[in-house]
Amino acid sequence: MIYKFISIEGNIGAGKTTLASLLAEEYHGQLILEAFEDNPYLPKFYEDNGKYALQLEMSFLIERYQQLTRIFSEPNIFSNFTVTDYMLKKCLLFSKVNLSKQEYKLYKHFFDQIYKKLPKPEIIFYLHADTDQLMRNIKKRGREYEQSISRIYLNRLEKM
């Protein structure tokens, strides 16, 4: 593999984790997946996004920072590249959609400090799917808290 750091990006339900997993398996790469299962703010965000948006965005930023710092500070002799199912820069896009202007300004301040300390992907694959397909994928994977995601929200994310 000529690239050392690859990121897969796309909307919710576009297939990022599937593609990242396939690439890592096929080419013996180190896989970093978005850690959403243990995030206590994610289900709460989908219930009341105004109340939990800042907590959610900050928790994802911190988690991703910790993942990337840990992975890239320890050499892995069993793989010659790393692939993630997220791109850190996309945190800004989600936060711009989800946060108030004042919260976004605060969030961006933290993001800028963290972002400059982390490695950047050498190549980014962006997966696009129309809203109908995203809705089918979200329903199929069956995460209960995602079932209330609206088409409007997915379209807003796609336009960012």
How does this model look, in words?
- The chain is α/β, with parallel strands linked by helices.
- The chain has helices spanning 16-27, 41-47, 49-73, 90-98, 101-115, 131-141, 151-159; strands at residues 5-10, 30-32, 82-84, 123-127.
- The protein has a single domain, classed as Rossmann fold.
- The chain has seven helices and four strands.
- The chain has a four-stranded parallel sheet with strand order 2-3-1-4, with helices on both faces.
- Helix 2 runs antiparallel to helix 3, helix 3 (49-73) runs antiparallel to helix 4 (90-98) and helix 4 (90-98) packs antiparallel against helix 5 (101-115).
- The chain starts with a strand and ends with a helix.
- The model has no long low-confidence stretch (mean pLDDT 89).
- Tally of separate helices: 7
Give the CA-based shape. Answer: globular
Biggest sheet features: 4 strands, parallel
CATH topology: Rossmann fold
- Tally of distinct domains: 1
Order of helices and strands: EHEHHEHHEHH
Q: pLDDT below 50 for ≥5 consecutive residues: which ranges?
A: none
CATH architecture level-2 label: 3-Layer(aba) Sandwich
CATH-defined superfamily: P-loop containing nucleotide triphosphate hydrolases
Portion in strands:
5-15%
Q: How widely separated are the two ends?
A: 30 Å
Strand pairing plus helix content: what structural class?
alpha/beta
Strand order of the largest sheet: 2-3-1-4
> How many runs of DSSP E, i.e. beta strands?
4
